[in-house]
Amino acid sequence: MTGPKGCGRESGWGKEIHRPAASGSSLRVKCTGAILAGGRSRRLGWDKATLLLGGKPLAHWVAEQLAPLTSVLWLVTNTPLPHVALGLPLLTDLVPDQGPLGGLRTALFFSRTSWVLAVSVDNTFLPEELLIALTEQATKTTRPAVLYRSDQGLEPFPGLYHVRLLQRLGDYLQNRRHVRPFLETLRPREIPLPMTTPFFNINTPEDLRQAEKWLTQSRGPSAIYP
Question: What is the pTM of this model?
């Protein structure tokens, strides 16, 4: 199993550097960042973490979004070898093939902070204000998670999770994998979405073409979902 390492922009992704939490916001608690990249990408036909968007791997797009808000940042994966070249600190899933909740459990297990900010590797266009709103709740809630709720229900990613969920999540994964039923049991701190659909995921070749189009036009999903 690959051990946890921190990362920092100044000296490259792979080095052990702890950053202060972001300035310019009311964030008071350091968070661990976790990019979940354990999916099999069947519909896309290509590993998402290394997939190029505008000439840059998806994992780097997401890492750059999380870096200002986290003190340590990891890529959590089932297949570490193809991801070594990304230069990001890697964690191998504690138990393979447990889906996104298995990746979250791995991040909680290794976390050096009380809170984990978890994001899917294909959450390429996350507005900064959404991430800041999540992390600011770390000092304001006693709930074990802070999540957004959309028309489809609680959104797992991006989400803020406390490490005290580790045992509870491990018990759940003994015989279940479904994400939203687990989230509903947590009674999380819920934040209403300030926009209609900010969580654009790249799941298919058509999604990738749409993302490339947005980049070409210097716009993201917020231009379509105000």
Answer: 0.83
